[in-house]
């Protein structure tokens, strides 16, 4: 008897300690059996699909969050209605099998590869003409023939019946592509609008409208035309005398896009040199594409204050992928914006120094080229590393064009030229010359004018002298060089000129 009780104790102990768990298990089994029995009486056509489950879950997820009690007191009596649901986008067409057995495929376009036209500026070229400067989708112009139409809409005076009856004047826009195919996603487009009669001759004001049509380019099913205003003239603001009067400046500089980590010392040297070279009747337009950082601005500011420099922030053009920071667009905008401001307009870079021989001046040289509307300038390529041993240990105190004294004399290769123009004769321009001008061009300027090119030195923020030589002729990296101290000899004159013009405020400028 005692033995039997001893044998039952473990079983009783198990039931006593796990009674709740066993009860839950038995209840679950009972419900499961009932659920299986119930499903045997449901018709076979009844099913639960995955989409039904998604709908159910989505409804459950749309929980209304109650307003916290603390925020109820801040509500007004106005009932706040929920925002209207945004319309669902239409479903894209789907491929389908046609009755004849052919599978009809579909092509669904999304977004836009490039803009039809990006305008930078629009300017008058005279009483009848305008120039619109911008960029456009390069494939559009390579593989299609987009067209442009110019409209002038005169301001309407309610008291002038004659003006009210006049219709907008229209003309076909003539496009020029000045970047010679160098564009990337975008290519430069200059639209010339030449009307049959003077525009805004009564000086009542108006606006120039451009219609830019793709003409079947891109999506050939559509001829998309964009209409936009490019220029507005307020009443009484047109000064027609500017087209015939003497220019304000004799020499005008249009700079390409400045970008990168530029050396403030190199910019300091360049601007001081050329203000001295061109003289008081000169002006310089600098375009900042990201290169005019704080230290460079400190160098330019004194000359801006004196009226020699205009600095333009063009950093937003980086949104549009054009060749070399859109420099073709930039120089064309400068050309047309200041077309009537300078007798001669120069196009070259901030690592290049214009030079005329002794006993000559820039005035005497250009007077001798008066019959030409454009001339090119011969290049003198200088090393950006080689210096003379005379400057060893003290090169850091010398200016760049003072210590970089070795000229590349390799023969039989083509070297780029830079150029100057009489801007009133140009319709568009390039980087190394213009192909869109009236009048004559000459390249025979050797011995009259040249430029020294210090390629690769403008963004060098460390000491430029890397190799020192003690010879008039050297070979470095398989390139022959000769000693040329032309600019070295006038460095002292430029330093004194800077000190006279702006004082000692830039004396502590460094690389």
UniProtKB/TrEMBL annotation:
Ligase is among the record's keywords: no
Pfam families in the record: Glyco_transf_92
Bilayer disposition of the protein: Single-pass membrane protein
Comp. bias (Pro residues): 81-93
Region Disordered, annotated ranges: 74-95
Enzyme class: transferase
Membrane-crossing segments per the record: 21-42
Keyword vocabulary terms for this entry: Glycosyltransferase, Membrane, Transferase, Transmembrane, Transmembrane helix
Enzyme Commission no: 2.4.1.-
GO molecular function: glycosyltransferase activity
Localization annotation: Membrane
Cellular component, GO, one term: membrane
Entry similarity comment: Belongs to the glycosyltransferase 92 family.
Protein name: Glycosyltransferase family 92 protein
Organism: Lupinus angustifolius (Narrow-leaved blue lupine)
